[in-house]
User: Which sequence fits this backbone?
């Protein structure tokens, strides 16, 4: 153990005196979380929300983003102050051995192939729309109509992304993505400004929670298959999961903080006794610790603010361009991206090429980032429930294993006939129910417990953070349970 006066390394000067120009220094793994969700989350589900409900579901994206930012910060703060991943601390929760880490980690791992089938199929359906010149009605084996060709394109997308993940050759894609997505975001902002949303209705939908029934136009023959017998609360589950990811993303994100070496993250794991001794005998320890807690705060604040902003912009355009179109255009069935071209072609028809490039780069970046995050999710989960398996040599093997698992699992689900695997929306809805808002809410309660038993009083959450985390846990758990009730019982 280090001496008391060096328990925490000296914080950098940029962290001690906070200035806006220094915030980018602390943009870390949170940006990867943002890149993973600025894809299917914004392009598909936020746009779909506006197309179906207009402004009335904007609150889902705002509140979910704020509550999840609080949830993730509580865990990032914890590993920064004591060096221990929260999932390890949760192994000591009262009750059956390992019950809470298993409750969070097992569904997360089992659901990984859902993401690696759903996202490629979203992009595969878009590719098929771009290259297909006539309707395909002939079945090929057990696959109906265009299903075979969408599966083929989806497989190509998944193979390209796993190659990038294994070869670690993401740099070119990342740089191209920043340029193209930056241009597309500028076009989106310009489109919102030009089209001029009704601010009174927008603000009402943003701050006043309400869940209305589906509008009558979703009963049209082309949409009836997807929306017949579907509860609006299942859409709420999708939208809540769309912002910033789910518990499976955050397990990996917290593990990635070790690479930043903020505070004790990646440096050492300090016991409560060591922390108490240091805080009691060396006042400078508390000061350093609290300064270090600013690093994950700025990383998370920046990334979630970006996610919330982009999500709301797409939801607003969904209302202005898709909902108000006659007839209404709804991203649904196997075509979840085509209608959104209107977001930029409202400014100029040739901007469709920017949108198309942005779609490809965003969704491929989402898949690449998911491989990176899920490698950390898997290793952190194993290190909590079976630490003997996480020696340095085995960690490398586990990371290769999880890439193979996600790839083969995703490929299998892609090629299972839709009658067995379900549609894209059905699979993503199931994943949102099982490891979405309710899991995030329970995470908040677990952090409240862990903060009290693991950290000495000077390092524990302040009253404002404690109450914010409690409210986040109550609201997300409640919304998750309500959505799950409609999914399983109605």
Assistant:
């Amino acid at each position: 153990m280090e001496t008391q006066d060096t328990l925490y390394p000296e914080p950098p000067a940029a962290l001690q005196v906070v200035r806006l120009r220094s915030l980018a220094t602390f943009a870390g793994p949170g940006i990867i979380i943002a890149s993973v969700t600025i894809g299917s989350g914004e392009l598909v589900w936020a746009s779909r929300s506006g197309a179906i409900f207009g402004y009335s579901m904007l609150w889902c994206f705002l509140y979910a983003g704020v509550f999840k930012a609080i949830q993730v910060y509580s865990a990032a703060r914890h590993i920064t102050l004591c060096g221990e991943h929260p999932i390890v601390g949760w192994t000591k929760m009262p009750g059956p051995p390992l019950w809470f880490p298993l409750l969070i980690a097992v569904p997360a791992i089992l659901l990984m192939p859902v993401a690696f089938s759903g996202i490629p199929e979203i992009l595969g359906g878009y590719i098929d729309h771009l290259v297909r010149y006539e309707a395909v009605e002939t079945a090929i084996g057990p696959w109906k109509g265009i299903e075979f060709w969408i599966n083929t394109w989806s497989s190509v997308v998944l193979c390209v992304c796993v190659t990038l993940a294994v070869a670690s050759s993401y740099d070119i894609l990342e740089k191209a993505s920043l340029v193209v997505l930056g241009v597309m975001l500028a076009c989106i902002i310009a489109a919102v400004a030009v089209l001029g949303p009704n601010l009174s209705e927008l603000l009402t939908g943003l701050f006043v929670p309400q869940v209305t029934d589906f509008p009558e136009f979703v009963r049209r023959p082309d949409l009836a298959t997807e929306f017949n017998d579907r509860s609006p609360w299942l859409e709420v589950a999708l939208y809540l999961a769309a912002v910033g990811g789910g518990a499976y993303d955050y397990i990996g994100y917290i593990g990635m903080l070790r690479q930043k070496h903020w505070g004790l993250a990646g440096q050492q794991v300090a016991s409560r006794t060591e922390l108490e001794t240091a805080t009691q005998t060396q006042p400078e320890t508390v000061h350093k610790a609290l300064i270090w807690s600013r690093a994950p705060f700025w990383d998370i604040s920046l990334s979630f603010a970006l996610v919330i902003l982009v999500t709301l912009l797409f939801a607003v355009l969904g209302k202005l361009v898709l909902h108000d179109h006659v007839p209404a255009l709804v991203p649904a069935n196997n075509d979840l991206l085509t209608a959104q071209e209107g977001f930029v072609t409202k400014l100029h028809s040739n901007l469709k090429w920017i949108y198309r490039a942005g779609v490809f780069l965003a969704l491929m970046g989402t898949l690449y980032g998911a491989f990176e995050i899920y490698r950390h999710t898997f290793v952190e989960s194993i290190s909590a429930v079976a630490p003997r398996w996480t020696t340095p040599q085995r960690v490398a093997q586990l990371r290769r294993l999880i890439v193979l698992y996600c790839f083969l699992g995703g490929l299998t689900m892609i090629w299972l006939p839709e009658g067995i695997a379900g549609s894209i929306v059905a699979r993503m809805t199931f994943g949102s129910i099982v490891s979405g808002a309710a899991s995030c809410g329970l995470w908040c309660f677990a952090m409240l417990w862990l903060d009290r038993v693991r950290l000495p009083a000077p390092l524990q959450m302040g009253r404002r953070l404690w109450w914010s985390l409690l409210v986040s846990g109550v609201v997300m758990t409640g919304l998750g349970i309500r959505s799950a009730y409609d999914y399983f019982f109605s």
User: Anything to note?
Assistant: The radius of gyration is 23 Å. The chain has a mean pLDDT of 87. The chain has one domain: 4-489. The CA atoms of residues 139 and 145 lie 5 Å apart.
